[in-house]
Amino acid sequence: MIIALDAMGGDFAPVSTVEGAILAAKQANHKILLVGQEQSILDEMRKHSKKYNLKSLNIEIINADEVIAMDEHPVKAVRQKRNSSLSICANLVASGKADAFVSMGNSGAVMAAALFYLKRIEGVLRPAISTFFPTMEGNCILADMGANVDCKPEYLLQFAIMASLFYEKIVGIKRPRVGLVSVGEEPTKGNALSVATFELLKKTDLNFIGNVEGRDIPRSKADVVICDGFVGNVILKFGEGLSEMILKLIKKALKKHPFAWASLPFLWLAIKDLRKSVDYTEIGGAPLLGVNGISIVGHGSSNAKAVKNAIFAGVRAVEQNLVYEIKEAIAKYNKVIE
After folding, report:
1. pLDDT tens-digit readout, 286-321
2. Which of 18, 149, 271, 273 has the greatest number of CB atoms lying within 10 Å of its CB?
């Protein structure tokens, strides 16, 4: 399998992306195309030459003269920078030279590049950015996470179809529970968007459990949580900040109590398990659902571990033939909104 990695995408690129590619290539024999400014990539790879036998790794560097920055206008940047690392990655998948591409860069630009080069799956109205979110019993998947801040009920219906299928294929849970974010459990609660979407979801044979409130998400009430991109991005960023705050408060509290601090070696395994359960680097990234090719969107502040896991997220999506499965599901369910 061939995975194209945007080596220049992310807050810590190319340091994190190059190391992540090396870790992934060391763990499995999938070919990784490191796309970016060649000299910068080579400089980073040399730093790892003493630790790893780089010649044995299935990594190829593809030069890209341009870079799309995190703060650039997504659509404008993709149109103007055809030779950017992100655009080349998307084009490699579109031309069949790579099976998937991964980027930890500007998420809006990733979506723009995927739409420009890969196009939408036939019948898909809007692609959705999905991501895993930690819960008391493992994790759920949230969609949309920011690709579409203004939505119609039909968009949310398709997000539910695609995210439910993704959860079933990648996580392995059949008929995952689908919940719609709202301000109350009753069908009539919420704004016009959520009320209308509720009625559409009722007509499907998805395992729709109804509305879920914000507190229900970490309580593991639903496996698939659906909302528009504005709400989803707020939930995601709040969750990241909350988990970071909790871990820091635990550390701060332990320092205040000498006996508790002395017991830290005995608590360390439990603390490591807690950190792992809320650590986005364990997941790495999630696919942009609805585009005609596998496009994995990672966190902008990803470290090497997150990059490595994002690469394997792309591998799993290809192995499960996710694009074809979504195409079939959308064709089946589109009659609901006709």
Report:
1. 889 999 999 999 888 889 999 999 999 999 999 999
2. 18
pLDDT exceeds cutoff 90 at 280: no
Q: Based on the domain organization, do 142 and 17 belong to the same domain?
A: no
Which pairing describes strands 100-103 and 128-135: parallel, antiparallel, or unpaired? unpaired
Tell me how far apart the alpha carbons of residues 319 and 153 are, in angstroms, rounded to a whole number.
31
Residue 293: which residues within 8 A CB-CB, separation 6 or more?
Answer: 90, 93, 94, 100, 101, 114, 117, 118, 323
In the 8-state DSSP scheme, what is residue 332? H
Which of 48, 2, 10 is closest to 311 using CA atoms?
2
Helices (H), the chain: 15-27, 38-46, 74-80, 85-94, 107-113, 153-166, 192-202, 229-256, 258-262, 264-277, 304-319, 322-333
Task: Give the global pTM.
Answer: 0.85
332 in a domain, yes or no? no
Structure tokens at 146: 């920011």
135/171 Cα distance (integer angstroms): 14
Query: What pLDDT is recorded for position 336?
Result: 56
Task: Note whether 269 and 254 are same-domain residues.
Answer: yes
The CATH code of the domain that includes 54 is 3.40.718.10
* Calculated CA dihedral for residues 297, 140, 290, 161, nearest 10 degrees: 180
Helix, strand, coil % over all residues of the chain, rounded to 5: 50, 20, 30
Per the structure, the complete domain to which residue 52 belongs is given by 1-124+290-323
Element (H, E) at 286: strand 285-289
Q: Which of 325, 334, 338 is nearest to 162 (CA)?
A: 325
Provide φ and ψ at 54, rounded to 5°.
-65, -30
